[in-house]
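look at this stuff:

>
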Amino acid sequence: MRTIKFFTLAVLFISILSCSDDNDDAPFLVIESETISNLHAPQSGGQGSGEDISGAFTKFSFSTGQATTSETEWDIAFRGTSIILNGGTSLGTTDEPDRTGEASGYIADSTLGGITKVNTALLKEDSDKGYVITGWYTYSGPPKHVITPTPGKVLVIKTHDGKYAKVEILSYYKDAPENPDGLTDESRYFTFKYVYQPNEGITTF
């Protein structure tokens, strides 16, 4: 009887060690790098129309690499030149989605390749005082009225579920023309490159 009990305990102990080893050896998920073209982010009102800005934000998930209509599974969202994160609280603009996640972020003065680690001390959430992601573009007035992503500005983001991503916005115009004209080229079409770190708790890229 003692021999049977000892054998059972030995098998159980070996199984636990085996499971522990399997967990320790679990491979890391591959860091993803993608370019998204022509993500449409329309808005109504604003720009001297006399009407308040409104319209649904275009929500995006880094884990799927796609736009989404989910009310919860999104990380970043776009409407016109406004960019919001799925964390914190709403600014209170019309049609702004509820924040259900823990997303936060900051803008770094660097290149996409120059950001190798997230500075978690700089992460902030959207609030009723304003959005975190501002100052990502420059506006040139007449005659072309062009919105141009400012070189050397990288969006560093903690996603709604605690992963990390970095983003470089490349263009605000459809098909990313090299020399856009704000009067003739279709605007509110984001082209951006991002790098997504899918591994839990890892802040490096």
Summary: Residues 29-197 form one domain. Residues 1-23 have pLDDT under 50 and may be disordered.
